[in-house]
Amino acid sequence: xxxxxxxxxxxxxxxxxxxxxxxxxxxxxxxxxxxxxxxxxxxxxxxxxxxxxxxxxxxxxxxxxxxxxxxxxxxxxxxxxxxxxxxxxxxxxxxx
Length: 96
Prior knowledge:
This protein is an all-alpha fold. 56% of the residues lie in helices and 0% in strands.
């Protein structure tokens, strides 16, 4: 079952449920709109609170799997470190 349907069928306000789960109302809305997928921790918590009516597997779709692509090994932090090791970009050089 979709969480939004569960909340509407049971007359539960989004803000109340968000507090019960331990997240902000905008975070809960993002999950329900499909903008963001909750972590396994929160998906499990929602399953427990709804007594299994909204299951962990209900959050996983083909789109969710496509979005989860491996990240490149060289992230922005590493790039910044490489730039700092460049003598032309050293603080002394930049200040002179």
